[in-house]
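Q: Could you fold this chain for me?
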Amino acid sequence: MKAFIYAAGIAVRLGPIAQTTPKILLEFGGRSLLEWHVLRLTAAGVDQIRVITGHLREPVSKAIHALKGRHAADVREIFNPDFQEGSVLSMAVSVPEAELCDPFALLMDGDVLYDSRMLPRLIGSPHPTALLIDRGYSAADDDPVLVPIMRGRPVDFAKRWRGEADQVGESVGFFKVSAADMVELAQDVRSRSRGEGRMDSYHDVIRAMTLKGLFAHEDATGLPWIEIDFPQDAAQARDRVMPLILRSND
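A: Sure. Below is the predicted structure, expressed as structure tokens.
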């Protein structure tokens, strides 16, 4: 199995720390986010990990090299030289490998600290293409990507979503994409990578696939996790989420 971790962004919202430290190298519980990813992925049976880099590439490259000696996983870098444009270009540099994955590839936001039970839930989904949601979200302090569910299927993938649905969850930022649906994803990514679409987010690609009914979902409600966008997220990750993860994963 192969996973692609997207970690090329500039992370402007994180503030001054992001000017010197890549977000994926922030440390919680004595390990970087990158190392937590490697640990979680290898424990879930993923033996090939690709990290898409861009902003502050050099320290991430060094960390990848160091992890190779400590963990039994094939961890490699894929560099996005156009990281200052839309994140769809990070997905674009990963597509040549991702579209060769069979039966599926994992696509993952790099800025998430999460419980060890999350990935097995996604990987073990009976659905060939699926995403993770958390119904316990709060829109009070941030701007979550919402996934409304109707008749058991996601029907949208958007911030500030409003409407009627049977359930609504926040996207965790992890996606399982089958080889068949990767064809659709790759075509969309390549199309957006030319011309005006270069400024798109790769979440725009996920939304387009969701609107076409290609994604199922798995529920991670109740498991501790956090996406780190702002300084207060990093503080929450350190003070609240990491202790919960360590207790629940003992």
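A (continued): Residues 42 and 77 are 17 Å apart (CA to CA).
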